[in-house]
Write a structure and sequence with these properties.
Elements (H helix, E strand, L loop, with lengths): L3 E3 L6 E3 L5 E4 L6 E4 L1 H6 L7 H8 L3 H42 L17 E5 L4 H7 L7 H10 L6 E5 H24 L1
Antiparallel strand pairs: 1-2, 3-4, 5-6
Helix pairs in contact: 3-5
């Protein structure tokens, strides 16, 4: 003897052997009998209205957890591609910032040296330490500094220097500071 069941969506009773498919409820996983016409029309399948409501109206914590799990799985699956994209994006951003502050050239404004690995951003007013003290240290170096400069529409007060010229500028600044301090002590 064959079993008779009802389609959850349409309510039509028919022999279970003639049903097109059995599908699992998208919320609780219970096996649900559906007619072929209903299977073709709907994307999600539920065993009752409670499951439908619980599926579509999740709590914020559940949504956050679901997004977090999806992001983690996506990152694991696409890790190498995402890392390569981030490296390329950071290099493009660095080149654009160094070019802007290098007066249209990706080179040191003092000596013209153009090896991008040795170029960096310098505070013209020598106030980099004060800026780092007042804000988050991590925002004032590396790719975060370049992102902040672009986001703030390239503010004034910066220049592109090579590591050698930047170090030389700092040595000269300290020498002048020491010389002025010694002169005050002699008077």
């Amino acid at each position: 003897m064959t079993e008779s069941v009802s389609c959850v969506e349409s309510g039509v009773r028919m022999c279970s052997q003639k049903l097109g498919n059995n599908v699992a409820c998208d919320y609780c996983g219970t096996l649900v009998y559906k007619q072929k016409c209903v299977l073709e029309k709907t994307k999600n399948h539920f065993c009752n209205d409670d499951c439908r409501l619980k599926y579509y109206f999740k709590t914020p914590e559940q949504e956050k957890q679901k997004r977090s799990e999806y992001s983690r799985r996506y990152y694991e699956k696409n890790r190498t591609r995402l890392i390569k994209y981030q490296i390329d994006r950071n290099n493009e951003r660095k080149i654009s910032v160094l070019t802007y502050y290098g007066n249209g050239r990706c080179a040191c404004v003092m000596c013209g040296f153009d090896d991008i690995d040795c170029l960096n951003i310098d505070h013209i007013d020598n106030n980099g330490a004060e800026v780092r003290r007042n804000g988050h240290r991590s925002e004032h170096s590396g790719s975060r500094l370049y992102n902040r400069l672009v986001h703030n529409n390239y503010p004034e007060g910066f220049q592109t220097l090579c590591a050698n010229c930047n170090l030389k500028k700092e040595i000269v600044r300290k020498r002048e500071k020491t010389t002025k301090g010694e002169l005050r002590n002699e008077e």
